[in-house]
Amino acid sequence: MHFTSYMPTRLIFGRDCIRQHTSTITPLGTRAFIVTGARSARMNGSLQQITQALGTLNIPFVHFDEIEANPSVETVRRAAEKLKKENCDFVIGIGGGSPMDAAKAIALLGCNTLGHDDLFSGRFDTPPLPLIAIPTTAGTGSEVTPYSILTDKRINNKRNLSSDSLFPAVSFLDPAFTDSLPLDITVNTAVDAMSHAIEGFLSRRAIVLIRPLAMESLSMLGPCLTSLAAGHLPSPKDRDTLLYASMLAGIVIAHSGTTCVHAMGYPLTYYKNIDHGRANGLLLAAYLKFLSPHRTEVGQVLGALGLESLSDFSALMDQLLGAREVLSKEDLACFVDTSLTAKGVAYTNPSPDEGQIKKMFEDSFLN
């Protein structure tokens, strides 16, 4: 048995956890740069709680609220220039995956001058500024990963910036910030978390340490997903469960990476504006069908979710996601070519060839 593990983030989980652990912020810096989207952090109370904590500590802050869904390289560069102009020395990312991923890149660019290709190299002269992550959705797991997924307009796709130095220093996980999420966002983010747990468990890079975490995440997600499929919004207790399961799945992919599901989902998001979690969910049944002749572990995945067969899984995805988007054969040919350039294809075990990627797309959208 041989493996390596690195998970340096301090996790603070629970309702009202920012107020209860405000002193954790003090060692990270003296002037904060807060990164959010345009509205949600104000609406769910997370921005108010962190700014109150900063006020208690007499730490001034600057707020950048221009992060779009699927943040671009251009946006994070613009934010980093503002951070430097304002002399901030630590970063706070609040939101779903987009603001947290953007915050990681901003923390890096705030103290490094990097060209386009150098940005994605994973090699930097200066470590990023300290980062606090505050998730307000239960799905991305970005609060416990060393990844920043950015939209790279030069290649017309999403691209992964990855380095161990991008792990947040501290993550505050307060499920109360997810209580007001509507059903569609709750579904899409929960499906994203499930995708992380499934892909991480089945990845070529999976290690013995994280497989029990993936199973635990799936066993918690299964009942929640069944309830969501019936149209029920989660109770506060279920919101706690979803955020915890999402965090576990994030720890899984921090070690294993993702597979061809994410590789195939990225062009769906870039070209068709399909939500990231939904894109993964639309592909997962075909992915498991591809793997099932080769991997007995597919049965373990289904069992952990409380399902008996791939047909049950497909039915659950259909209930959760509804009618699928209409894609042309020309669309799918482009998406196949784009997917093949992503690392996740190589992490799939067995790795699919071009024809098998095409078949998974066809099974997901043309049948």
The number of helical elements comes to: 16
Number of strands: 8
Using only C-alpha atoms, the radius of gyration works out to 20 Å
* Strand ordering within the main sheet: 1-8-5-4-2-3
Order of helices and strands: EHEHHEHEHHEEEEHHHHHHHHHH
Report the uncertain regions. none
Mass-distribution shape: globular
The secondary-structure class comes to: alpha/beta
Fraction in beta strands: 5-15%
Our measurement of the CA-to-CA distance between the termini, rounded to an integer number of angstroms, reads 42 Å
Q: What helical percentage do the residues reach? A: 40-55%
Task: Kindly report the average pLDDT value.
Answer: 96
Major sheet details: 6 strands, parallel
Describe the structure.
The chain is α/β, with parallel strands linked by helices and 367 residues long. The chain has 16 helices and eight strands. The protein has helices spanning 17-20, 40-43, 46-56, 73-85, 97-109, 116-119, 183-202, 211-229, 236-256, 260-272, 276-291, 297-304, 310-321, 329-339, 343-347, 354-365, and strands spanning 10-13, 32-35, 61-64, 90-95, 131-135, 147-152, 157-162, 170-173. The strands form two sheets. It has a six-stranded parallel β-sheet with strand order 1-8-5-4-2-3, sandwiched between helices. Strands 6-7 form a two-stranded antiparallel ribbon. Helix 8 packs antiparallel against helix 9 (236-256) and helix 10 packs antiparallel against helix 11. The radius of gyration is 20 Å and the shape is globular.
